[in-house]
From TrEMBL:
InterPro entries, sorted: AB_hydrolase_fold, PGAP1-ab_dom-like
Domain GPI inositol-deacylase PGAP1-like alpha/beta residues, every copy: 145-270
Protein name: GPI inositol-deacylase PGAP1-like alpha/beta domain-containing protein
Pfam family, one: PGAP1
Gene Ontology MF annotations: hydrolase activity, acting on ester bonds
Length: 400
């Protein structure tokens, strides 16, 4: 059964895509016309507003799209979100992927498909940030909490993995942690999610049924960067929750950027230099979260006032690991050994080893941890870190 919320959001996104395709066609058409007729280039130089030169056909199409969107909102906004049926695992995964690719647009356009940050329990139920619901949801709540934060285009469902090996449940059985799974819009800026996670962790601690003694944070891929961002924004005002984080683990996190994001940016930059290719540089339309992965931006200062589609050097502000916390890095490589050419070049297919291990040529950006707190797993890809038994055994051992 398709929910009204999903129908509304999908239709709105489809209209947005149609509008975007129309703009690409218009830019291409205008470029061709300008090249064929020299008078059009003279009008560009003269500064004639583009709206005055815009074709009536394109104006009509965009006006139609706008009218359809307004009608869509009026016809479906009256339905209550409380009446929505429970979404299937498949639909939640599709929504998570969409949020990763264009989540910032979904949020800015008030699309119902935009995911709002929230916690889930081990049964998949959403948690409300008030003490009464917490007590009812966790009647046997303990003083130790583990929060698992997924990566780009993923959701809480991916912690179960293909083998149904749930890391949160394993830690509950082995060490008594109560597992909570964060769901969030991975298309937003990492710093925006980090700041919000810091606020939600404080609410979580304040409303937990018993006094919290320890808060364990585990992040996969982008999730590790969101954790580091949250720790930064939580430590600046010295929020109490930061004092409870004794250990934090990062699974394949691109601390200094992801190779795929760098390659996508380079392709976009090159295409922008060619007049006919520029409208088709689709990477410029990807989410802010994906663009943050180019270097591993953690703070608002890393992207504010910067055109992230243009070429620029790594100007990130160095963000040290949270003081007083022991940090563990887990990395993967598809090669047979970390020193293999394939391992060095592509790492786990998405994140290179030096980035996952926090290495950097700039001493201020290098993340320093004990050698025994970093492990590289051979013959594993990026997603396999989520549900691999050997990886889970290492985490359980570290937390003794």
């Amino acid at each position: 059964m398709v929910s009204v919320k999903s129908l509304h959001g999908s239709a709105q996104l489809l209209l947005d895509v149609a509008g975007g395709v129309t703009r690409i066609a218009e830019r291409t058409h205008r470029t061709i016309v300008r090249e064929i007729n020299p008078l059009n280039r003279l009008r560009d130089i003269a500064g004639v507003p583009s709206k005055e030169r815009e074709g009536q056909t394109y104006r009509f199409i965009q006006s139609t799209m706008s009218s359809l969107q307004q009608g869509l909102h009026r016809s479906l906004d009256g339905f209550s979100a409380d009446d929505e049926p429970t979404h299937s695992v498949h639909s939640e995964k599709v929504a998570a992927a969409l949020n990763g690719v264009c989540g910032d647009h979904l949020e800015a356009s008030n699309n119902p498909l935009a995911i709002t940050m929230h916690f889930r329990n081990s049964q998949g139920a959403k948690l409300r940030p008030d003490s009464s619901s917490m007590g009812a949801t966790f009647p046997n709540a303990g003083p130790r909490i583990v929060v698992l934060v997924h990566g780009l285009c993923l959701s809480h469902e991916y912690w179960k993995g293909h083998n149904e090996a749930d890391l949160g449940i394993e830690l509950q059985r082995a060490h008594g942690f109560t597992p909570l799974y964060l769901n969030y819009n991975t298309g937003r800026h990492i710093s925006s999610n980090g700041r919000e996670l810091s606020e939600q962790l404080q609410i979580l601690v304040d409303t937990w049924p018993v006094n919290v003694e320890e808060l364990l944070l585990i992040g996969h891929s982008m999730g590790g960067l969101v954790i580091r961002s949250a720790c930064w924004y939580g430590s600046e005002p010295k929020l109490p929750w930061t004092q409870l984080v004794k250990k934090a683990l990062y699974l394949g996190s691109p601390h200094h950027g992801a190779a795929l994001a760098k390659a996508g940016h380079l392709l976009t930059f090159v295409m922008h230099k060619f007049r006919y290719a520029s409208p088709f540089a689709l990477a410029q339309h990807t989410s802010a979260g994906i663009k943050d992965l180019r270097y591993g931006n953690l703070l608002d200062d890393d992207w504010e006032g910067i055109d992230q589609d243009e070429f620029h050097l790594d100007i990130r502000k160095p963000v040290p690991l949270l003081a007083g916390t022991r940090h563990y890095f887990l990395a993967a490589t598809i090669g047979d050994h970390p020193t293999d050419f394939s391992s060095t070049l592509v790492g786990d297919l998405l994140v290179r080893l030096d980035s996952a291990k926090g290495h950097h040529s700039d001493a201020l950006k290098k993340l320093r941890i004990r050698p025994e707190d970093c492990r590289v797993f051979e013959k594993l890809n990026h997603l396999a870190l989520l549900d691999n038994k050997v990886v889970h055994d290492q985490i359980v051992e570290w937390l003794v």
